[in-house]
């Protein structure tokens, strides 16, 4: 079920691995105590260190720094010259790591219904503590190494500063108050946990009296009562709970709770977020068992042995839409990643992936078997799993295109409450959500993720989301991976289980089934309540094997018959179109769409029906852009609201391969005549159609192609948004979700010659119709006219090129904090150079092309700081109440703010309200009005752009606006 994302071979077995939450960095430590930081996106080693011994490069670097600072010979032995010993743990630490650690703890605690009075939904970003630095932290037996990957300067904390006890594990304890330095807790060989400050590098606290053996693992989390806790596991088999509340002044803290967890010692601890319940702790021990603990009563909920006779060494909480029943991943010393299904109920263990199948055979020696020694899941992208093996580190990818089983419902006119339907296990549920600006918002809202990193001058508006979940008393037949979609009218909900395969169509008002059957994919028409199905023909029954034949021949015959039956079923699978009538019954209107003989592998709904075929024909990269040369596709008859339904099955041309090398195997068909429209295209990942059917977007791996549809199909351009998983149109705004970001594409088709011709033809048709009516009413005398000065209005229409502008709204990364060594240095005043330098800086501020999210305040950037993207795969609901709504894999709604003036003005102009866009521009720094005027000109609002008060006289923008207005 997993496929290879990246692989780095090593000469020794990898025993420690960690992933950075926001950067494509992976740190490993091997059995020889060599630590490496690897950029898995670019396959590049960033840094290597001999942490177990003495690294000569670091030692020479320290001596050079001391000489540069004026120091002579070192008075004592530098800490860099101390042998580190065995590497026990490696990790990253910076503002991103700190933020997402706090977010994980808070969001897990907020799920518990009992937490409503304790854990509020307000989650403000902690103050930056590392000031732009990215620390690599290495916990060795004899010392802890803190290496800044920005400046390449390090700080070593020897065990002499920690009561001369060996360091075996570590955990970061973050304070949320401004100005507080981060703290690091180290588990010692004597059972004591010691905490140091990364500001003073001094020991500030001890946790004593909990363990009689060496501390092996540490974890911080938040209880449903809102208390910050630290849990530790040790070789004595105890699980000990401590208070991590840093407001206490005591330097010696005693345990809050101690309980026996595992015989032989605790190996690892993991925090598990439970949908609708309090968080749970997962522990694995030397007794080869895995235990799950309730964090309210701290009672054992379940104990299992995932792999008989083998001890687990790694565990990860997991929640991925493609496998909704698998909650825990674990590894033993074999070649598998194991998954545990419903761990508190059935607790079935199944292999998720056989890693040997991902590695090229030549990398495995004939006498060497693959063995896994460590495993970690990406904290923000659940489709990425890293494993350390005896031949290298493997980064696996698990279907990044899978989306949560959620479908939005239309909002009644005038209502402020919005709703969606989601599927959990075998239950359909409502999710009702709306903005709530009360002082005590309901628990469970993660909407305030958008209110982070705000700087002076930006809006301080906090988006609180009020949401509730309600059951729908309708049985659902399956609990496997499902895809939900709603018809254009919102009256019907379709659920497809592609792995079964099976589908059901429900009436929304009473949740009765109106249609069901066998199908792998379902796609809706955006104009009427009709849908297309990719049917799955049942394979014919196997022939009866007579008793007289041998068992071997019988098996061979059965396998051959099964292969023939499967091939026959695949060839018979066709695309069928059904319509939902007014009496809520279904009728088949096309039994087979398309006359092509190739098997169908994908359907895409929308104003046109897209069908992807399986073919082996490849095209060159230059031919892949042939989408711009599609034949004319007049679509003036199409128009409706609704989302494009998209779904596809795994095939030879899935997302791991570049769209440039894909064949032309995608054909669009009319929903009315079921005839092909245009020529063949490369198969997109998904399609999105504008609600008014004026624009469409086809997504590929490396870019998104955007086209206009009226008066005829016209290619506008493509935007380099990689690996997009979904999008929704809001007039001339396309909101796109990727695994790491949320983008907004502002689109305008401009004015092309075909638009002028179409306008001329329409005017001539109107004149002829008016003459015909006049003759019918008044006779031939109505045609008499007095000649006067003629004006040709068509010549005054200025052609305008298409405009595509991309703004990044949200990402995982923290708002950038500028370290002192990267700021502009002070300049001495020599012959007036200072004034010219300042003038150059001011010129750069007003003229540079800003990137969305890169600014510090409204006065120096056109766009806001990037907001925080919710974790994991997302369904984008749309723009309602002036915010962008999204739903995550935990079935929580998030509101993304669009209130920054730089965004608000563009959204209003794209929506068609240019007057309000000019009014909102008063809240934007005047130095950005030139840029906004250029945007409004590209959108076709030259007259309104002239009213922007901050248009610069020294630039040509005002002249261009005036000339454009005169031509109009």
UniProtKB/TrEMBL annotation:
Keywords: WD repeat
UniProt xrefs under InterPro entries: TSET_complex_member, WD40/YVTN_repeat-like_dom_sf, WD40_repeat_dom_sf, WD40_rpt
First and last residues of every WD repeat: 259-303
Name recorded for this polypeptide: Transducin/WD40 repeat-like superfamily protein
Top-level division of the source organism's lineage: Eukaryota
Source organism (scientific name): Kalanchoe fedtschenkoi
Record SMART domains: WD40 (SM00320)
Residues spanning the signal sequence: none
